[in-house]
Amino acid sequence: MKQRCRANRRFRLLAPWLLAAGVAVSTAAIAKRDGPESFPDRAVAGRARYLLEQAVAHEHGEGVGRDPVKAAALYCEAARLGDAEAMHSLGWMYANGRGLPRSDAYAGTLFAMAAFLGHAQAERMRRFTGDYVGDVPDCLQPPSEQQLEAGWSAESHIQALAAPRQSIARTVVKLARDYAISPRLALAIALTESGLNPVAVSPKNAMGVMQLIPATAARFNVRNPFDPVDNIKGGLAYLRWLLAYFRGDIALAAAGYNAGEGAVDRYRGVPPYPETKAYVARILAFVKRRQHPYDSSITEPSTVLPGLELVSQREVDS
């Protein structure tokens, strides 16, 4: 029982990274621990096994020239696909400084991941490197903003706006990076909320660029809701919180921004308000993706999140 509790605790620590890094990893992890793999899982596992074999060959010079840097890259790609042996092997390279700078922190992360998937040697190695402490090798980091926004240019979109709104849009894009929010998502919210009007006031007394009601402005320490920078920072802080609360689900975060997270919880999905449904559809059409990286340390997730995710997907697909 104690061993199972420790494993569950490690998974809670690793889960935010696993989700942000890619669905394949978390799906493979669940399949290996909890039951038979589905066809997509088998395909992912087969790709990971091929990459692992290539990595071993390059690490030891078996049939190819010995190349530890290439081996590490292949191990890393297999690890992203959920292969425990690849996680262990890459961790070993970091632990021993073989072809990579020595890092017990990176090694500890990889050994913890592999141990969660049942790799016995990785569990033993954790005694030498310590527990997962949050340090993740660069090759395993979530996709960069450039990758997430491939084919989309903030500046080209800004140039199409009316001149008085362009400076506001650039402020939104600049501050979004400070809050680890996709500029595309931040701009979608700001455009939908107020059309980038810093003095906008709604019938419900929502104010400024990001349309903050007084309670939200106070909650996120906005002193002057009609100051564009102060307002945008408050709106981004709230959006960052919503992304953490709904674990990166953009549809649910957008619905929460429009109707409040309480309404999303209460209806277990996007509330059936015509305004909110249209709002979410507009945001998703602009950002063209459903998931966003998030910081799990900001807040605990919604207590009804598993059901919310299923409902949210059905509503968007319908």
Automatic annotation (TrEMBL):
Residues 1-31 form the signal peptide. Gene3D superfamilies: 1.10.530.10, Tetratricopeptide repeat domain. PROSITE patterns: TRANSGLYCOSYLASE (PS00922). The keyword Signal applies. Residues 174-269 form the Transglycosylase SLT domain. InterPro entries: Lysozyme-like_dom_sf (IPR023346), Sel1-like (IPR006597), TPR-like_helical_dom_sf (IPR011990), Transglyc_AS (IPR000189), Transglycosylase_SLT_dom_1 (IPR008258). It comes from the Bacteria. Keywords: Signal. The keyword S-adenosyl-L-methionine does not apply. It holds the Pfam family SLT. CDD domains: LT-like. Belongs to the transglycosylase Slt family. This is Transglycosylase SLT domain-containing protein. It comes from Aromatoleum diolicum. The lineage of its organism: Bacteria, Pseudomonadati, Pseudomonadota, Betaproteobacteria, Rhodocyclales.
